[in-house]
Amino acid sequence: MRLVLLLMFWGCFITFSLAQTLPASLEKKDLQDVVKIVRKIKDFEKLLFAAIPEKRHKILDSLENSEKEDIFKAAVLLQKILYEAKEVSDVKILARKILFYLGKHANPCLEIYFRARIAEELGLHHENQLSYAKQELSKLKEMTTQFACTNYEIYVLYLEYKLLQKEFRNDLALAKLLEAIDFYKKNNLQEDKEQLIKIISELVSFYFKTEEYKKIVEILREMLYTLNETESIERAVINLHNSLGLAYKRINNFPEAEKSFKKAIELAEKAKDSIWIAIPKGNLAEIYTETGKYDIAEQFLDEYISYSIKYKELGITVAGYIKMAKLFRLKKEFAKAEKNLHLADDFLQKHLESIRKSDFWHYINYHVRLNREYTEFYLAIKSFDKASEYLKKYDSFRDSLYKITLQEQIVDLEARHRVKEKEQENELLKATNEKQQSQIRNSQVFQWATIIIISLLLGLIFLGYKFWKKQKEYYKSLEDLDLFKNKLFSIISHDLRNYMSSLKGYVYLINNQEMTMRELKPLSEELAKNTEYTFGLLDNVLIWAKSQMQGQTLQLQTFEAKELVQKVIFEIGWFAKIKNIAINCHFQENLWVEVDFSIFLIALRNIISNAVKFSKPNGMIDIIVQKNNNYCDFIVKDYGIGIKPENLEKIRQEISFNELGTSLEKGTGLGLILIKSAVKDLKGQLFIESKLNEGTTVTISIPIVRNLNTNKI
């Protein structure tokens, strides 16, 4: 009964407070003061947000039907759009009513504020309304210029940022955020610090995703320094202190993180903001968990979970259960740890769609954190099969998270490429138009008009052909660059990432298990294979990427030929020993070549590695260095499985491909591309002879030089 009376009292208090936020009758001078009105609307929103969600509907209905000023009713309807409107048609009906109320006062600057908020709601939270929001953005830009509403351009910039972010054009969105901050400072908009705080919060969120934590610390310290104590009880500023604590925590500066979280709690307690008392307590609990202060950490996490459930903060609830599971695991109370893991899993599954729609990136991140804690839990209780199962799930979701970030970057690159193409098209049209006008002005002699026109046309056709040819070459280079980019992204995002994940998994299992030498042997063999593959892959990718960069010059030095071969054999000889392959070397003495050391060694290493890779176990490889007229021949001959005829054709056409070795060794498809590129740069020649099931002979011919400047390896 007490609880019911308390809720009734709270509902009445909120309704009364909201009714007083915007006065029933604003003076005429106040109607012209847009800043004052917008500030009152924002105060109105804060009080409304504090209301229990179930009470908001009744509060808004009662306020809409009251005898209030038209601007007050417009503010109420805006809250209905933000909190209650589910369908696009409902939003647009309410929007028309808002514009009707605002139209009575003919205040375009206030209209810009309302229309920007409505367009943001439609574009971000309703399907197929992005184009409508972009149209509104164009209109609002015109209005800010037409009616000189300079101070309210900040809302238009913020809207443009949110729409760019919705389209995954993150680089452009970041640029728009920074432009908004510069605009705020340039125009000294001190009366609307709340909007700046909102923009700073978005910037911080962006840098959290890119893991630039030191930037976050720098930005937030500067921002919080400018705020006075009376402003610091706002919820947005509490969030800034909490974000600063998270950034310090990510760079392992726990003392500063603890100070920031405690400051956020202090401000939230002053504001009597329950959910924001709990959030920094939940984050502070993680630090106490790491430092062994388990009792106070458990108390804070209880509050964190309780308030997140009460205020329907779904993602925070999942995070709370995961944090609690980790705490009990470290306390070795495994039954409680397992219970909290199941609670997190069940809650995430129950609210799957809501969490996914809210923020897909965080949805995947919750899965990453949950499966990582499951892995840690099962390792702690020595259930290795289960630990391995959840480690695979963890790797899978973490890979998905990386791909989402990578896809956003690719979409952003493509968007910028399209913008660049459009700019080039416009420049081309402009240049063509100027040429045509110049031709018309110069054809004034009627007697020679026909001859001049024909000559000009022929000249234009010729120039057009040359221009078309040049454009064709330009777009071909862009396509080659795009193929290179996609191949590089594919290798890094898939092969390298997967193998590094596998390496991490093997090392993790070895470090955390008690295993016999017999159990460790297959793991160590797999670890050796994966390490060699990953090293070769990374080396090839880096050298290939370096060779694609414009302006890259060779660092030519003189070396004795046999020393180059011996260097490579020393590096990869162990790989041949694994397969029990004998390497026979036949060197002609005193042969000197001028090469770029790193590029030539990569080429030679790839040739010998391929020979080992495609040789059968217990086989043999011959390496011959001999003089051939004015060239030094490096000959690598194996007696393995040979190269298929179709693959030889791909080599001639410089098309990459990938084949498994005789012991199922994997490759990147870059080796032969690197070899051909290196030999070409060194003014040498490459010859490949191969017969299926008989073996392959690869010869690199490099010009011989006199031994003037000897370099020892």
UniProtKB/TrEMBL annotation:
GO terms for molecular function: phosphorelay sensor kinase activity. Keywords: Coiled coil, Kinase, Membrane, Phosphoprotein, TPR repeat, Transferase, Transmembrane, Transmembrane helix. The chain crosses the membrane at residues 445-468. Pfam families: HATPase_c, TPR_12. Residues 403-441 form a coiled coil. It catalyses: ATP + protein L-histidine = ADP + protein N-phospho-L-histidine. TPR repeats lie at residues 238-271. This is histidine kinase. It comes from Raineya orbicola.
